[in-house]
Amino acid sequence: MLKEKSTERIILGIDPGTSIMGYGIIKEVKNSVDLVCLGIVKLQHHDDHPLKLKHIFEKTILLIDQYKPDCLAIEAPFYGKNIQVMLKLGRAQGVAMAAALSRSLPIFEYTPRKIKQSITGNGNSSKEQVAAMLKNLLNFNETPEFLDATDGLAVAVCHSFQKMSSTGNKKNYSGWDAFAKDNPKRLK
User: Fold this and answer.
1) Which domains does the chain have, with CATH numbers?
2) Tens digits of pLDDT across the chain (188 residues)
3) Which of 25, 60, 107, 144 is most deeply buried (CB count within 10 A of its CB)?
4) What SS3 state is found at 178?
5) Angle in degrees, CA 10, 41, 162, rounded to 5
């Protein structure tokens, strides 16, 4: 099992997809989290599924080599009505994970519900609600072209919050109201 640094780290979050892959990178220093970058990788122009997977692998390697993250946090594929879509998403996730493993990065996987719960306090939040909360938490004004970018960012922030809540440095909150009351400076 690969280990992470404890005082300062860079987290790469990925929302895997076969049409659009979203990513976000944050820098965590103690209990502070700052946005490094976020973006998407468009894959629609590739007709061949293996070429899409190759592009996901190459882009993930480029992000790792450029930003030197300490770990990869990735969204787990969820079961939908179409098993073929789930299989393709699983492949996309696996390729991104293989890229991280090729650079000896530890990998952490979170369900969509866990990510939404961590960011907004509600596991059924919309993509728009998650994006709005991230803008407040990380103090950025840009609206990404696609919500997949903020979805990737949400995975990274979710991972950061998991460490903070498990180290005893932060309280476990039962919902958004409790978090907001104890953290007014983070909501400016």
Assistant:
1) 8-187 (3.30.420.10)
2) 555 556 799 999 999 998 999 999 999 998 899 999 999 999 988 789 999 999 999 999 999 999 999 999 999 987 667 888 888 899 999 999 999 999 999 999 999 999 999 999 999 999 999 999 999 999 998 777 789 999 999 999 999 999 766 654 444 445 556 656 666 665 65
3) 60
4) helix
5) 35
CA–CA gap between residue 3 and residue 95 (Å, rounded): 21
Q: Where are the alpha helices (DSSP H) in 68-111?
A: 83-102
Burial 116-142 (b: 16+ CB within 10 A, else e): bbbbbbeeebebeebbbbbbebbeeee
Q: Strand, helix or coil at 170?
A: coil
The pTM assigned to this predicted structure is 0.84
Nearest to 75 by CA among 154, 161, 165, 160: 154
Phi then psi dihedrals of residue 64, to 5 deg:
-65, -45
| DSSP code at position 31 | T
Q: Is 166 exposed, middle or buried (0-12, 13-18, 19+ CB in 10 A)?
A: exposed
How many whole angstroms separate alpha carbon 160 and alpha carbon 26? 9
Catalytic residue annotation: 15, 75, 148
CA–CA distance, 11 with 71 (Å, rounded to integer): 5
**Residue 132's closest CA among 176, 76, 82?**
176
